[in-house]
Design goal:
This is SET and MYND domain-containing protein 4. The chain has 23 helices and 17 strands. Strand 1 and strand 2 form a beta hairpin. The protein is of the alpha+beta class and 743 residues long. A 5-stranded mixed β-sheet has the order 4-8-7-16-17. It starts with a helix and ends with a helix. Among the domains are: 287 residues, no CATH class; 105 residues, Serine Threonine Protein Phosphatase 5, Tetratricopeptide repeat (Alpha Horseshoe); 34 residues, no CATH class.
């Protein structure tokens, strides 16, 4: 690919992380402003701006573009899907018809729609005398009772009970009639029923191997951060890591659900809901229960509620929506704390850089008066500097025992000010490639930040927001600059959140990951890419879990995979994707050696590690005619490889046994076999090796069973429905379903 073609592809990929290329008004808006501004103004005037605040301020104030920008943005109006009592009534009546016909699953869906569309009490007295919501909840509770799902019935009844003093007598009678058998069932079975144990929302129950790392939040002590000149900060192994070790369990800094899952998943925790409850004002989103609803409505959703339809219709990317979520969940006061903390952090960094430059200049001056070093002395000096950099932590992460308290107090003053909690800036230290961005890229992202700012003004995010004819004030510009920074860092650091959809006929065959949302994880974002990753990931709720799939030694890079993997894509395809999407050229072993894809990969190209301790030489397997005895060209010792080859064959037999156990629906036992074999393989051999890579993929599938899964189950003959379950719940759900089917 030519340099011009590479640049064009990279620009296209970058644009797709901002907005859709084929739909939505934002594309037309940005292209119109770009045409008015002209490439020369964008490059020569806008391109000279060096701060995010300066960029967004120019969009609103520069005479070249401000009129065109404001002409469109001032037409921004609140747009959302409100409540509709008539629609709610229609769905509720359909639900009663379905329930009367014995179609309880259909009835639940219809009652759920009625609940979500129903206005709260007193909002619309012309339909059902304003009692549409309690009527829908009672209808759904009665259906849950018919399905013997008493816990869900009681949950709906608890919402009705909150309205009790406003209900007419006939609804109170209906409420008491449904509640009585539910409570009787719970009392009769409270000792025999297995309680549904849920971890706190967003928190995975998996424990970290080796314990928690005090210097690397949410990570294991088996990990450390290394800073290199070429690869930047990256995660390395601090201690030996074995396959299956849990290395990170991290809640998201921010997360947003994909719009296509608004009707099936909780807006806050991403769980697949059974008895959804809605926002008090809009019908755009749903929540799995009271807790998630209250958390969302008290923070980000109170700002996003009235503009969700507008945001989706604009054609913005999901990363742009996540950039807004990072802002709305912080709130106006939180945004200003982050803004001030970033400015102070930048000022401190500038002072440190200036001092470092002065020290370097002094060293140069001193060295000029000293005799020149020999080549060997220079090599020793370079090795010492490299060794120091490998284990050097960033200044904000270093802490000596005697100065620990003082450092923490200083950081709190810089980042938290009068707030007792320290502002979390980890996500803002992630890479943005600011120096490599074009002026046009910055300009389009500044336009998106301006649009999001106007949306926030419309929904009352700011106290005393400026009027349409006025330039944004300093607080509004600060928030817009924060939005612009979000749009940059999310491009390279966000993760897709998925659930595993199991196959219809088999637990593993036909299963696939389905991406339901996007999130940003500050610690996991530090993992670099490798086309042969050392870890796999899955999700428990919104929390990400990172586990090792192969053995690693201290100092080895612990890399995940950004999408392009050597078993499925050619070297050219991987390099093109990574350069366009993430702006780097991969130099992992699989790329340097151009490993073959699965189509041509075999077990015969495996390389055996030299048996001599400390020798890193890799050898080709001995032929059938050879006795396996050779002289190693590295350690110069005679070594015997036949035994190592036999141990590789034993690993292959264990892999096959593990796959057979997976066929029997025993993921835990299969995982133990696969991990045991993988650990043995990496002690004696080195990839590529087809069976090992297949086994690592199979082990990843087994581990994913501990995360979010969606089961395809025959609920009521002959209909099918997905039932969402979290770890520890699906076995109980199976028993409940089997009882219903038997009846």
């Amino acid at each position: 690919m030519t340099s011009e073609a590479e640049t064009s592809y990279r620009n296209l990929c970058s644009l797709e992380t901002l907005r859709s290329g084929g739909k939505g008004f934002f594309r037309d808006f940005s292209e119109n402003v770009i045409q008015v501004a002209g490439e020369q103004w964008i490059d020569k005037v806008f391109g000279r701006l060096t701060s995010d605040e300066g960029r967004v301020r120019a969009v609103f104030t520069d005479v070249k573009v401000k009129d065109t920008v404001l002409e469109t943005l001032n037409r921004t109006e609140i747009l959302y899907r409100g409540k509709d009592a008539s629609v709610s009534r229609s769905k509720r009546l359909e639900g009663f018809e379905a329930a009367a016909a014995g179609r309880h699953r259909d009835a639940l869906l219809l009652f759920g729609q009625a609940v979500l569309r129903a206005p709260h009490l007193g909002k619309c007295d012309t339909v059902d005398r304003g009692f549409g919501l309690p009527l829908a909840l009672l209808g759904r509770a009665e259906t849950f009772l018919a399905l013997n799902q008493h816990q869900f019935a009681l949950q709906d009844l608890s919402f009705v009970e909150e309205m009790d003093r406003h209900l007419p007598n006939e609804l109170r009678t209906m409420f008491a009639r449904i509640k009585k058998p539910c409570e009787a069932f719970v009392r009769a079975n409270e000792k025999s029923l297995l309680p549904v144990k849920r971890s706190p929302e967003g928190t995975a129950v998996t424990r970290l191997a080796g314990g928690a790392n005090p210097r690397l939040p949410t990570a294991s002590t088996l990990l450390d951060i290394e800073e290199t000149e070429k690869a930047g900060k990256r995660v390395i192994a601090a201690k030996p890591i074995e396959p299956g070790d849990t290395l990170v369990v991290e809640e998201p800094f921010a997360a947003t659900l994909l719009p296509e899952f608004f009707g099936t998943h909780c807006q806050h925790c991403f769980s697949r809901f059974v008895a959804p409850v809605g926002c008090p004002d809009c019908s755009s989103v749903a929540f799995c229960g009271r807790r998630c609803r209250d958390v969302a409505v008290a923070s980000y959703h109170k700002y996003e509620c009235k503009i969700l339809a507008l945001l989706i219709g604009s054609g913005m990317s999901v990363l742009s929506m996540l950039a807004l979520r990072m802002t709305t969940q912080a709130g106006p006061a939180g945004c200003m704390r982050i803004h001030r903390a970033l400015n102070r952090s930048s000022s401190v960094a500038s002072n440190e850089q200036e001092q470092q430059q002065q020290q370097q200049q002094q060293q140069v001056e001193r060295s000029s008066s000293q005799p020149k070093l020999s080549k060997s002395a220079k090599r020793r000096l370079r090795r010492k500097k490299l060794g120091d950099s490998r284990h050097r932590l960033p200044s904000n992460e270093r802490e000596s025992p005697q100065h620990g308290n003082q450092a923490r107090e200083t950081e709190e003053k810089l980042e938290g000010e009068d707030d007792p909690s320290v502002t979390d800036l980890r996500v803002y230290r992630l890479i943005t490639h600011e120096k490599r961005r074009t002026a046009r890229d910055f300009f389009e992202r500044s336009l998106m930040a301006a649009f999001l700012l106007k949306c926030l003004q419309r929904v009352g995010f700011f106290e005393g927001a400026t009027k349409d004819g006025e330039a944004p004030n300093d607080r509004e510009i600060a928030v817009a600059a924060l939005l612009l920074r979000h749009l940059q860092l999310l491009q390279f650091n966000a993760h897709e959140v998925f659930e595993t959809r199991l196959g219809r006929e088999h637990q593993f065959r036909g299963s696939r990951p389905v991406y339901v949302g996007v999130a940003i994880y500050p610690t996991v974002a530090r993992f670099n890419h490798d086309c042969y990753p050392a870890v796999t990931r899955y999700f428990v709720g919104r929390s990400i879990v990172i586990r090792a799939t192969r053995s690693l030694r201290p100092g080895d890079v612990v890399a995940e995979n950004y999408g392009p993997i050597f078993t499925k894509q050619s070297l050219h395809e991987r390099q093109r994707t990574l350069a366009g999407r993430y702006w780097f050229r991969c130099e992992c072993t699989a790329c340097r050696e151009d490993w073959p894809r699965f189509e041509t990969l075999t077990n015969d190209i495996v390389r055996l590690k030299c048996p001599t301790e400390g020798c890193l030489k890799l050898h080709r397997p001995p032929t059938a005619e050879s006795d396996g005895s050779i002289v190693c060209s590295s350690c110069r010792r005679r070594v015997h490889l036949r035994e190592r080859l036999e141990r590789v064959r034993e690993c292959e037999r264990l892999y096959a046994e593990g796959i057979d156990v997976m066929e029997q629906h025993e993921p835990e036992r299969a995982l133990n076999l696969l991990l045991e074999a993988a650990a043995k393989f990496h002690r004696i051999a080195s990839p590529p090796h087809k069976d090992t890579h297949l086994a690592e993929i199979a082990a990843s599938a087994c581990m994913a069973q501990e995360g979010n899964i969606a089961r395809y189950i025959n609920m009521t003959k002959p209909s099918f429905s997905y039932i969402y379950s979290r770890p520890g719940q699906h076995r109980q759900t199976d028993r409940q379903i089997d009882k219903k089917v038997d009846r």
